[in-house]
Amino acid sequence: MSTEIVKKWDLAKLELFAMVADFGSLTKVAATRQSAQPVISRQIAALERACGGRLFARTGRGMVLTELGLRILPRIKSILADAERLSEDVGTTPGAPEGDVRIGSLPSLYKLLISPLFHIVRERFKKVRLHVFEGSGGQIDEWISSGYVDIGLPYRYRKRLPPNLEQLIAVDSYLVGPAGDQLTASRTVEFAQLAGRPLVLPGEPSMVRLMLDRLAKRKGISFNIVLEADSLQIQKEIVLNGLGYTILPRHAALSEIEGGLLQASRIVNPTFERTVVLTTTSVHPPSLACREVSALIRRLAVNSRAKTRMPEYP
Question: What was the pLDDT predicted at 87?
Fold first, then answer.
């Protein structure tokens, strides 16, 4: 984005553009800002004139970003984030973090990391506010690269990690079945035993699915996928109802396993390991609050590693 455009659009106008993009509705933005809708509409029109093109398409469903709007939205959000961090740095007492920290997390980490993180941050850092966005590994990577989130917690599937990624927890994969199921009653299950079993798995281009398909091809077996579902909750619900199995890290179904609703058997020969990693955006320098929250995540990961594996029998 050119310097001239940024000069024409003060921060208040940039914030308005971002709000309309997020809400997709002039009515909702007007209500949030306690302003009249025609005023918001005129401001948007002025923004478009300053930019030299349409930023939104007006449809029956509300305001939809045009190609130009989609192109500049990440950069505008980055500018707003930088301005917010500058304000935080100026107004923050040394050693006292404050401000917003945006985290992109896998849904399966809510109990293992996200919930305990919220409790600790709330207790220790009164002026830090967390924003948690759940998504797939691919979505989290996009959020990190655009600066939409400060911290990302995706999976990786190789033992060697690039320098910008930090290993938190290495987790095995488990075949998850309903309570009383014979196949998942044992501690381990052979990968070949998955052949023909009714499975609920993420759809392509999920990296988990791609890796599992490669292993199946290598072992010469075929999966019987009865449902493709990216939602962790849907996968577990189908298994709870006895309609199939799914493949998850143990912590993703920890509550149901400990409650006796589900069973999990570690997949072996071969094992299928994934690693939860921590990464931070390079679009802007990490704030003090971001650094403190990252340090807490690291400590929580160390304390949580035992929950990712089946406890040993005495």
Answer: 62
pLDDT tens digit sequence for 173-216: 999 999 999 999 999 999 999 999 999 999 887 888 888 999 99
Token digits of residue 133: 């966005």
Domain extent, residue 108, equals 97-169+275-308
CA-only gyration radius of the chain, Å: 23
Residue 64: give its domain's CATH number: 1.10.10.10
Residue 151 inside a domain? The answer is yes
Q: Are residues 28 and 110 in the same domain?
A: no
Q: In what order do the strands lie in the sheet with 224-228?
A: 188-190, 262-268, 173-178, 245-249, 198-201, 224-228
pLDDT at 191: 95
Please determine, for residue 32, whether its predicted confidence score (pLDDT) is greater than 80.
no
Looking at the structure, do residues 9 and 25 belong to the same domain, yes or no?
A: yes
pLDDT in tens, 212-231: 999 999 999 999 999 999 88
**Is 224 a domain residue?**
yes
Task: Tell me how far CA of residue 244 lies from CA of 144, 233, 267, in angstroms.
Answer: 35, 14, 16
- Number of domains within the chain: 3
Q: How many CA atoms lie within 13 A of 239 on its CB side?
A: 32
Q: Do 189 and 164 fall into the same domain?
A: no
pLDDT tier, 78 (very low <50, low <70, confident <90, very high otherwise) = confident
| Strands (E) located in 39-148 | 56-59, 62-65, 99-105, 128-134
CA distance 231 to 2: 40
This model's pTM is above 0.70: no
